């Protein structure tokens, strides 16, 4: 175990599966006390199994979510690190996307980041600062058909992170965006059982393999830690070269 986050308290949203669970695990391994927020109550046991505290919460609830963060600070704080990982994907042609789907993407992916930082940044600044990692996507850099609304929310996260870095930098708060590419979550692993799809996934990447959730977790733990003290307002792309290639993949 490394000690990059020893004695730090870190909150991770969307913590019960996939990348979120990888972030929880790697922060625990780095010595942090981790609180994982998860909307699906059935997944809380997975967070607890990693040695973290699982808390039920919905980042899409504009009133309950900020209140939850404030209660966590009061009861479990101070909070030194925040990872805004919760997010959803809706892939469909733009002309078929409903207003409700657009608004859902905005509420969960984008507004939740604004609300969490609005709630915690003043508290962090009064406690000597902290670190925020906003999980975006390589879709903020290179996207495709059917991802207009989703990519828009992820591009917004990168832009908001840059602005937040300047808003809170003098208060000792670093804010960075982490942009994963295709990652071997449960859903991707299920799809990769098809040999043709697995080969296609490999071909998209410079080194012929897909990210693991723990690799993204390690990157998030690094950005949270003092080892990343030079990083703020950055967007770290972790996609095995996927978005650096020109042309069709």
UniProtKB/TrEMBL annotation:
It comes from the Bacteria. SUPFAM superfamilies: NAD(P)-binding Rossmann-fold domains. InterPro entries: NAD(P)-bd_dom_sf, Sc_DH/Rdtase_CS, SDR_DHRS6-like, SDR_fam. Keywords: Oxidoreductase. Coiled coil: none annotated. One of its GO terms (molecular function) is oxidoreductase activity. Belongs to the short-chain dehydrogenases/reductases (SDR) family. PANTHER family: DIHYDROANTICAPSIN 7-DEHYDROGENASE. This is Short-chain dehydrogenase/reductase SDR. It comes from Nitratireductor basaltis. The lineage of its organism: Bacteria, Pseudomonadati, Pseudomonadota, Alphaproteobacteria, Hyphomicrobiales.
